[in-house]
């Protein structure tokens, strides 16, 4: 997911500055590679003049962002404008892949 997020942010910010709002409210599992990809994508977007607000959305993601030293907003209230565009990046595990994850973990 981190690579997909990085590619999407790169595509969105390549043509000029924009405002981004990232929420990980429904993210259940993180990896160090995913967090590194998110951090790198956010840094690149900020270098391009992008304004970014990060809302971890859960205690688990707040802890992951804190551990990875990725800055985030204490609260999302008032961060997201009413006319903001919503882009959702999601990958859902099927019941078969969940079984594989359980056995390999």
Structural class call reads mainly alpha
Instruction: Give the C-alpha Rg.
Output: 15 Å
Q: How are helices and strands ordered from N to C?
A: HEHEHH
Name the poorly predicted regions: none
| Number of individual domains | 1
Strand content: 5-15%
Strand ordering within the main sheet: 1-2
Shape: globular
What does this structure look like?
With 105 residues, the protein is mainly α. The chain has one domain. A two-stranded parallel ribbon has the order 1-2. Helix 1 packs parallel to helix 2. The relative contact order is 0.19.
Give keywords.
single chain, mainly alpha, 4 helices
Write the layout of secondary structure elements.
Layout (H helix, E strand, L loop, with lengths): L1 H12 L5 E5 L8 H16 L3 E5 L3 H9 L27 H10 L1
Parallel strand pairs: 1-2
Helix pairs in contact: 1-2
Short description:
The chain is about 45% helix and about 10% strand.
